[in-house]
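Record pair follows.
FIRST:
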Amino acid sequence: MGQDSSDFKLFKDIWAILGGAKTAGVSVENLLYLLLIIRGAKIPFKEREFNAEEDGSQQDENLQTSNEKVPDVLSNNCMMSLTGEFVVRPGGQTKIYKHFKDLYINRIQFEGIKKPVKSVELQFVQSKPQISKKSQKMAEKAREKVR
């Protein structure tokens, strides 16, 4: 994956919104929450309103990498609080999902390429039903009893 690819840019967005550049890493909980959103999970109880003054954090400062700003769709819907919690506004999960949808689709397609595909051939045979040998023996025994 080259640095010019769309997936690489989306990975940089993930790094930026989780505050990776600022803290030299991301927490597992925050990454898990974001990955669940990217997969399409809706977790409404985790959404809450926020503003920079209330949280004591600088939203724009938290959502910047060293040389690139995060798209507005992300900076307006999520942020890192001073406590290190990844916060998403109500309705923001859907917008984040839409932003990262290509990354998710590319990942699913890549997984599909790696797995061997079994070819299934449907054979439509124009034949009559056949009786197994075991069933034939049972039928013969029943006929003998009747005779």
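SECOND:
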Amino acid sequence: MPNPWNEDLAWQALRGLELGAALCECEGFYHTLWGALRIAGLNNTMKGEAPILTSLMSPYLRDDAHVMIGGSADPGVLCGIGRIYAPRMPRFTVIDKCGAPLALINEFAAANGIPNKAPAGAADRGRHLRPRAGGRTRHSS
């Protein structure tokens, strides 16, 4: 059985560029370039924090856990937490104010059999986008 927590950074960078161009309205179009920064090694997400995070989370590692991740630019945090929980598979809820990382994380989770629940409103974010000049999108009211 393949490890669901292995990341394909090249795919994430390319797909993140596409989703970021369509969905990200953050200052500097942050989520459009995030994957490129990771694959270039300019940001290692949470690799340095993994040992301390593992020790802090160890009392809560159980089979029926539900983990909420607040703010995540790509599947990196999801995978980092998943590696800490392995071989257990908690249920995840990932929230973010931007639809681009949520779309990328949802695609990644679906492709890897990772239970991920988008909170109310976040799942609909992509449906409430409309094109504007220059191919960018903006949230409709």
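COMMENT: The first strand starts at residue 66 and ends at 70.
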